[in-house]
TrEMBL record:
Residues 146-581 form the TRAP C4-dicarboxylate transport system permease DctM subunit domain. Part of the tripartite ATP-independent periplasmic (TRAP) transport system. Keywords: Cell inner membrane, Cell membrane, Membrane, Transmembrane, Transmembrane helix, Transport. It is a multi-pass membrane protein. The keyword Transmembrane helix applies. Pfam families: DctM (PF06808). It comes from Hwanghaeella grinnelliae. It comes from the Bacteria. InterPro entries: DctM (IPR010656), TRAP_DctM-Dct_fused (IPR011853). This is TRAP transporter fused permease subunit.
Length: 638
């Protein structure tokens, strides 16, 4: 055995540090670990894959081409996805992913039976009078089963953390009358609870699940088709062509490619795993530290859910919840998204300049024209989606048209052409990817139903008013903190829904614009993916970067500083969300971009050369003032 260097003795300090870190990781694991994806083989694996593909095909037909009523569509979708959850996701991380125990068939069978019962009762549900028409014994049994199955599905797919919150809300619904005082409510019987939660569209079968069953599913399919036909490779290559030769080129590639891919995938964690597997090792080879490489990828990937025209599932839920047209949301998000990425890109450049990192070897950089010639066709689907939204088509049809465009352009080249086996894989993969989204949306529906029947939102509003008084700034700070807290370990749609139901009414009472207020909450719901102590995106990056996840998360927060300032800026100055004259919009963008650049330079301690501490402090303060300056200069704020 060769010489391995000095051996560090395990003293008390090292033991305590190691123990604390392991304890912390264990707590996070217990709260947020999910079941494993099963790896079924043989006839069983093929059968499950066929079922998943058939479910996807039915969902596309029902959402885009049939006249199935929304309630029947949502019930059927949840039932089928519950079946897939029990067949594809193990109960715990310690389960054997190669085996399918007998009790999973019972769960799948109960899901089908409950869904089938509700489908036979849709006409009765549509005409019954809530809380007046009594529930039959079969109604109670089926409703209880579907709720229990949904809770188990969310535990497997999104972890115990969100499940515990849902159970807490359910306990509050059933036993909150015992509390008394301002947080108490009237007595709610079990049948009353089931009536609101299952037999109306205010609970389990409400907006979140309806979105998951329609355009969220279709946009996941769009992203899957694009990835399977080589679209994600094109976005990476074009990013390399444009920025690979500049200082810190690989990190800039990560920023651009992750943003492009993130707007399609809508999931920070999957984006980190997909693009980070290439960009993080590349950044490390160039000379960036492991922590910085992971943090850049996390910050860039997380912001993809905020980039139009696709954005993430939460943006679709925002459109449903606020009745604001999705096109208006996408347009309003354009400048904030640019302002999100400007500080990240600049910080990467300044860090490269400070430590003397150059770009990629020219031989590794694909030529722009050759890249566009080879894969420029993949820009067409994004143009088609934008065209569809601008021309008033619903997000459902925008996703369908975008997917059809990918299929058409993929036929132009033999290596990207879709074959029947590829189509089969796309359908199955789309369904599998949507399993976790369904669990999160079911959880959100249960929470919304509970809040509706107890009036908790108004009580929560009183609590926020007690903390912040009538100060809009303090209320926004409280709203941001609570949204980050609600989003710890949760999928973005669940975090946004909780914030929208509990916090948005308070913001509207304070006079905050509806669009600005909900976009503010959406930003902080997305940012919960990289905010310590949970930071699920950072945990995904830690294995690729070989660095501690919380160090990655802390640095990612610093790199993504724009995401924590821009929402305050567009609430303060609606010109940033295109509410104003062209001059107001342009001046707002320029001033905020300038202010963010000053803040980044102060953070990095480098501009054209190293900056002293006093200069950095003054630059940071000046940057903050510049960000919020325009309304006072030009009278844009009434």
């Amino acid at each position: 055995m060769g010489f391995q260097g000095p051996v560090r003795r395990a003293g008390p300090g090292l033991f305590i540090t190691s123990y604390c870190r392991n304890f912390e990781l264990s707590l996070v694991s217990i709260a947020f670990d999910t079941g494993l994806r099963r790896k079924l083989t043989g006839k069983l694996g093929t059968g499950v894959k066929v079922f998943a593909a058939a479910t996807a095909a039915w969902t596309v037909y029902a959402a885009g081409f049939s006249r199935t009523d929304v309630l029947s569509l949502t019930i059927t979708f949840l039932s089928l996805m519950l079946v897939l959850t029990f067949l594809l996701i193990t109960p715990t991380v310690k389960s054997n992913p190669a085996k399918l125990p007998w009790f999973e068939w019972i769960g799948a069978g109960l899901a089908l039976a409950a869904g089938g019962y509700f489908l036979t009762q849709t006409e009765n549900i549509a005409v019954r009078i809530t809380l007046l028409t009594p529930l039959s014994t079969y109604d109670v049994a089926a409703a209880t089963a579907i709720i229990l199955l949904s809770i188990e599905a969310m535990r497997r797919t999104v972890g115990l953390g969100l499940t515990a919150i849902v159970l807490l809300f359910i306990a509050y619904n059933l036993f909150g009358d015992l509390l008394g005082g301002p947080m108490g409510h009237g007595e709610i019987s079990y049948t009353h609870f089931l009536d609101i939660m299952v037999f109306t569209t205010d609970g389990l079968f409400g907006v979140p699940l309806r979105v998951a069953a329609t355009y969220a599913f279709l946009f996941v399919m769009f992203g899957t088709v694009l990835a399977k036909t080589g679209g994600s490779d094109f976005f990476f290559d074009i990013a390399a062509s444009l920025t690979g030769g500049t200082k810190g080129g690989p990190a800039k590639i990560a920023v651009i490619s992750s943003g492009m891919y993130g707007t399609i995938s809508g999931s920070p964690t999957s984006d980190v795993v997909t693009t980070g597997s290439v960009t993080i090792p590349m950044m490390k080879r160039l000379g960036y530290s492991s922590t910085f490489a992971g943090a850049v990828e996390v910050a860039a990937s997380t912001g993809g859910s905020l980039v139009p025209p696709v954005m993430g599932a939460a943006a679709f839920i925002m459109a449903e919840y606020t009745n604001i047209d999705y096109l208006d949301i996408a347009l309003a998000a354009i400048l904030p998204a640019m302002l999100y990425y400007i500080p990240i890109y600049l910080q990467v450049h300044l860090r490269a300049s400070k430590i003397g990192l150059e770009g990629l070897d020219p031989s590794l950089i694909p030529p722009v024209l050759a890249t566009l010639k080879r894969g420029g066709m993949f820009l067409v689907p994004l143009v088609v989606i934008t065209w569809a939204l601008v021309n008033g088509y619903t997000p459902t049809y925008a996703a369908i048209y975008g997917t059809m465009a990918v299929v058409v352009v993929s036929m132009l080249r033999k290596d990207t052409r879709l074959t029947p086996s590829r189509v089969f894989d796309i359908l199955a993969d789309t369904c599998v990817k949507t399993v976790a989204v369904t669990g999160a949306c079911a959880a959100a529906g249960l929470v919304i139903g509970g809040i509706t029947m107890t009036g908790l939102a108004s009580k929560f509003g009183v609590l926020v008013f007690l903390i912040s008084g009538d100060s809009v700034l303090v209320s926004l700070m409280v709203a941001a903190g609570l949204t980050l807290l609600l989003g710890l370990g949760m999928p973005t749609p669940s975090a946004y829904i909780l914030a929208a139901v509990l916090i948005a009414p308070v913001m509207q009472d304070l006079g905050v614009d509806l669009m600005a207020g909900h976009l503010f909450l959406l930003y902080f719901a997305v940012m919960s993916a990289l905010t310590p102590p949970v930071a699920v995106a950072a945990y995904a990056a830690s294995a690729l970067a070989d660095a501690p996840p919380l160090k990655i998360a802390a640095l990612a927060v610093r790199i993504a500083i724009g995401a924590f300032l821009v929402p305050f800026a567009f609430v303060h100055d609606p010109a940033l969300i295109l509410q104003g004259t062209p001059f107001e919009i342009a001046s707002a963008f320029i001033l905020v971009a300038t202010g963010l650049s000053m803040v980044v330079a102060a953070q990095e301690g480098y501009l054209k050369g190293p900056l002293t501490v006093p200069i950095r402090l003054m630059l940071f303060i000046a940057g903050l003032c510049t960000i919020f300056l325009r309304p006072y200069l030009f009278g844009g704020l009434s």
